[in-house]
Amino acid sequence: MYEEHELWQEEVPSAWPELPARVAGLIPIAQQFDIEEEHTAQVTRLAASLFDQLAAYHGLGDKWRELLLAAGVLHDIGLCVALQGHNKHSRRLIQQTPLPGFKKRERRVISLLARYHRGVPPRETHRRFSALKPQTQEAVRRLAAILRVADGLDRTHASVVQDVRVDKDAGGFRLVVSARGDARWEILAARKKGNLFEEVYGPLRIEVLS
Q1: DSSP string covering 70-82, please?
Q2: What architecture (CATH level 2) is domain 4-155?
């Protein structure tokens, strides 16, 4: 296992967005689980962009942004166990793996964000989610909603989406996607995974910039 100072000194590959030091330190950990690095970097980049553009609506600060990006880096590590239910495997692995620079309660949030990047959204009937304080539950919902859309926007794992712009729409939001090629599968996946986004932020329309 890497020592903490070794992790933080790793050079971040160019495919990754600019990351806070402790988040960048998670990349070598994710690599140990044989992640698909281009996809993981793309999802993390899109999640960062969506978080920043929605700042006035989710009201979450830099600490929460770092937890979202950490979940972006680690969300698919469960694929080393199995494709089916890999989000739940990711949650378990994150809980079991030391994350240098992150406190236990932060690791718990990161693990739940990874768990909810696909599948059923957070529900009060989910034991680990319901054990959180109400304020933390709401933050997890807001962040998971972003991560799900970001993951959908790289459905083909081909980094087709170059950029995404968030516009406030009547009663909701419009995501305008700039793509380098056919993004039909990305749009379909983001719409499907946008169910939690619509619960949290309101109606969502996704369009490709023509």
Answers
A1: HHHHHTTGGGGT-
A2: Orthogonal Bundle (1.10)
Nearest of 179, 177, 144, 175 to residue 158 by alpha carbon: 179
Burial letters for 62-81: b for 16+ Cβ neighbours within 10 Å, e otherwise? eebbbbbbbbbbbbbbbbee
Listed by start position, the domains of the chain span: 4-155
Q: If you average pLDDT over residues 81-106, what whole number do you get?
A: 92
**Which two structure tokens, joined as six digits, stand for 110?**
């990161």
The percent of residues above 70 in pLDDT, for the chain, comes to 93
Residues 6+ apart with CB under 8 A from 21: 8, 101
In this prediction, residues 164-179 reach a mean pLDDT of 94
CB 165 within 8 A of CB 176: yes
Count the neighbouring beta carbons within 10 Å of the beta carbon of residue 210: 4
Residue 164 near residue 175, CB atoms below 8 Å: yes
Q: Higher pLDDT residue, 169 or 74?
A: 74
- Which residue from 157, 65, 48 is spatially nearest to 110, judged by alpha carbons? 65
